[in-house]
């Protein structure tokens, strides 16, 4: 929590996710509490509960330091309140960073969220099977420049490469498929004991 999200004991963390998903139980329950942070558990949608200000209301009411949600949720808020009129009703000065994961954070959504929040909006990439980020901007170690459409760099333990259709590694600036080599903790490391 500290290295990836820069969350310290006493801060308030909110993962707007279903607690049944790996993001939910890992980043609503275990992660923040093990880091000594306060966590927010919220049941509801980002819009229609009762309006598109649900996220901003919770951030204001509980002094949330960081919000972690899916780009789809951000897009839903944008669609319901494109001019961020609901945001203007709340004091979200406690919010340091908005983190997004679960799918690609498209540049248009990133630009909108960055503009209305005037805070870092950080994309990172991981999968249910990995349990944590494969690529991220390690905010608690050495924050890097944020680039729309990019989850920044591979996290410690991963080597992510872009390969062409024949599996050959391509350099920066090329399109292709990704290949990642997972952290040792997710590989079979059993030994046979005689």
From TrEMBL:
Instruction: Please name the InterPro entries in this protein's record.
Output: AMP-dep_synth/lig_dom, ANL_N_sf
- Record's catalysed reaction(s): butanoate + ATP + CoA = butanoyl-CoA + AMP + diphosphate
Pfam families reported in the protein's UniProt record? AMP-binding
Q: Region Disordered: which residues? A: 165-194
Where is this chain compositionally biased, Basic residues type? 168-178
Q: Which GO terms describe its molecular function?
A: acetate-CoA ligase activity; propionate-CoA ligase activity
The UniProt record lists the AMP-dependent synthetase/ligase domain at: 7-176
Enzyme Commission code: 6.2.1.1
**Top EC class of this enzyme:** ligase
The protein's name in its UniProt record: Acyl-CoA synthetase short-chain family member 3, mitochondrial
Task: Give the originating organism.
Answer: Electrophorus voltai
Which lineage ranks, top first, belong to the organism behind this chain?
Eukaryota, Metazoa, Chordata, Craniata, Vertebrata
